[in-house]
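Fig. S4 source data, part A: sequence.
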Amino acid sequence: SALEGAALRRAEEIVAAGPALAVQPADDWENDEYLYCTEFLVHGEALDTEGITEWVSDHGGSELVVGSGDTLKVHVHTDDPGAVIAHATSLGEVSQVHINNMRRQTAERAEARHSREGAAAPSKRVGVVAVAVGSGLRDVLLSLGVDEVVSGGQTMNPSTGDLLEACRKVDAAEVIILPNNKNIVMAAQQVPALMDRPVAIVPTWSVPQGFAAMLEFDADADTASLVGPMAEAAARVRTGEVTTAVKDAKAAGGDIAAGQVIGIVDDEDIREVGDDVVDVAVRLASVVADGRDSLTLLAGEDLSDEDLQRVRIAVAQARPDLEIDSLRGEQPLYPLVMAAE
């Protein structure tokens, strides 16, 4: 059956609806001679990667500088993170700063391991934490086997701490995180080093991609064998989002005024602009479903059942061959999210 149809049917039983990136816990700070694990991004013009690497290596160990000429990620163990960050700010702008006291982290992880040794064995091999906002989306994810749903999404990204807390609640030997938004992937990548159990990230960029990934999930498998198939399933999903422009902007198709309705494909390509949600949604559905066999419509909290039905009927008339499912996602800010495969 179609991916979205399977997700909807499994949800109804309960509620009456890029390449994989696997990250294992980083134990590279055990018995390290330096105190602080320091990571950040530096943004600038024509950044000298070799020069920055040489400078960082003179002020710490386990250094790693990767990225392009205008954005670099820096990782270093050092006793003076302030000096490293001050040097970086002299070269450009700094963001996503993370400083961990490795001595304390090691002690906390040892304590956590000791606590788990005395606890009952996990009930299953692998559990899942996913990010979503909207009661309907949450119910679908839970129905597909997700253990913990962290509230968040566009404009309301959960922190690494939020994701870590959710992972710790999962009664499983290993955990997979579905960020379901590209802006949350980096926060998720910080979790494995803070957990006492293996954690893997499937970098899903939308909740529909999370649905697809969960259809490949098997709690009795292990993260190493699951991450690839889950990511491949997610990558097959084309996502469309209907929302409102919050400010004037320019797009490939022309100028956009604040307050206009816009249709976005795969979280970055503005393909449709208009003044009516239903009109933009119908046109966007044609783009998203092009060359695909099935389409799922996820109604947001601001879209009425009547308007959802109008969209569904219009799309069905234009594409009688298309398998269409619809449900209440109840997500904020996005009157309609759609997924095609």
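Fig. S4 source data, part B ends here. Confidence is low (pLDDT under 50) at residues 1-31.
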